[in-house]
Amino acid sequence: MSVSRLLLASAAVAILTSAADAEQPASPDAKPAAAAEHQHAAAACADPRPDCAATVNPAFDAKGKLWVAFSVGKTVYVASSGDNGRSFSAPVAIATTADGVIDAHGDARPKIVALNDGALLASYTTRPDKQMIGTIFTARSTDGGKTFSAPQPLLTEGGQRFETFVVTPKGRLYAGWLDKTNALKAKAEGKEFEGSGVAFGWSDDKGQTFAGRKILMDHACECCRMSSALDRDGQPVFLWRQVFDGNIRDHYAAKLSADGATLTGGRVSDDNWAINSCPHHGPSLAIDANGGWHVVWFTRGKNRQGLFYAHSADGGKSFSAPEKFGDDAKAPGHPVALAAKGRLYRVWKEFDGTTTTIPMQISRDGGKSWSAPRVIAQTEDASDHPELLANKNAAYLSWATHKEGYRLIPLPRDEKSAAAR
Amino acid sequence: MPISRFIACAFAFALASSGAQALDFKPYGRGAFAQIAKAHAGKPLMIHFWSVTCPPCLAELPQWSKMTGERKDVDIVFVNTDSDEDRARAEARAEKAGLGKATHYSFSDDFVEKLYFEADKSWRGELPFTALVAPDGGVTSVTGAIDDPLVTKWLEKRGGK
Fold first, then answer.
1. Three-state SS for B11?
2. Which residues from A are below 8 Å from B54, CB to CB?
3. Is pTM beyond 0.90 here?
4. CATH for B23-157?
5. Most buried among A10, A53, A284, A393, by the most CB within 10 A?
6. How far apart are CA A290 and CA A231, in angstroms?
7. What interface predicted TM-score (ipTM) does this complex get?
8. CA distance B46 to B96
């Protein structure tokens, strides 16, 4: 560590310590002054718990236990909670990277998947120090999360990031990710290549091995997360930002065929966001019991700017006209959608210069109409992107914030109870 | 803010005493945008935000290097938006692009919404992002590449080379 970097770290710590003095969190989750040992400037603490992580990915298992994957420093952890996130088990370390970086910032994050029979799959992406490409690793637990297998790379060549998983009722585990293999090949040949490929694989042995692992489409925007959901017919649907001709970064949704060989779907909207930039701002997909695809996304396109919602009733062949939501005066961003027992939810982030809020809306008619936005959580410091998840019929917001720590917040079942909150 | 001034002094002192030649990132936290704008008041200023996780940013860094050499009439400041884990990589990329001697800041605060907001109320972190600050403090923000017509026009307004 160079002198200057050491100084930078201590300078950051100095700022942090003074801020902590001024604003002592009142919640029982108040973080100890362990900040001084943490390398990451604004992270609130360095303990291996979700409260100290920049990103937290949650999943419920079949028994209703909450699992979270997160990283602190150079280690990826999994922990569980039997009381909906109020307390967590001692974390299990999945892996520590000797060199390189664990992708755990913004859209990128370690993940946890609960499989049908109680097995668990944890995943994370590392980026080596020298190259801007990633390797996705997975680790399995078959003893209820007590121990995890040694992480193994999904692929060892090319470069992969932004993995997402779907489990089918039959127990097949599908994976989708952004894959730079073709991009690297083109670069080596001195050819122009926009973005990444979108690649898919599946596992019938609970993540021990993955078949497929092929790029089925090229030119996805390489810095935005991919989203996925299970369709009514048991096949997975994926959603990502695609780079269309003319550097237009709009969205594409498609279903993977049963043999994993083809994608069927289409463009979500013609925002016409033609820009040679990285939005770092991926979309979110939810599918309801009738097979309706519901998409939320962010754009600054020529045709529209802000957060939008659209749905498809014909498997992605066509989408409804994009409908705007969010308060443009508060830089709305990072929207997520969830379908749970006849209801649709959408949440996102807004910021007014001081406070970050999570507004929520419910639809009980398949996305035709939505309740008035209602703020369900807020914070006045750094925070993760919001995530939504369901446990049987109940829906929750999962959100990690520096001040309050990790929170799992139940979502109201209808507009009336939403208004009463 | 007394703390940040103290840090700035400590930095200057450390650099002077260690004679460090390597590229150094000054911390960019809450209030930094206004502080930088103020420090460069009276001169046209470009504050360019970039990240190693943004391939278009990396691709155009050499062009920024060229611009810093050619446009001595404009102050250009670089802000790396990565977290500390990526800083070594950012340093290597900046140096490779010929920006070793440029003025560099880096995000030192995870409250990124606040840092974005202070530069532009509608910015959500898309990169590359450049704030064009006129001598009178007026800010034009540009998402996208250095050859964006907004950048070219703004530079033309500031006079030729």
1. helix
2. 223, 277-278, 280
3. no
4. 3.40.30.10
5. A53
6. 9
7. 0.87
8. 21
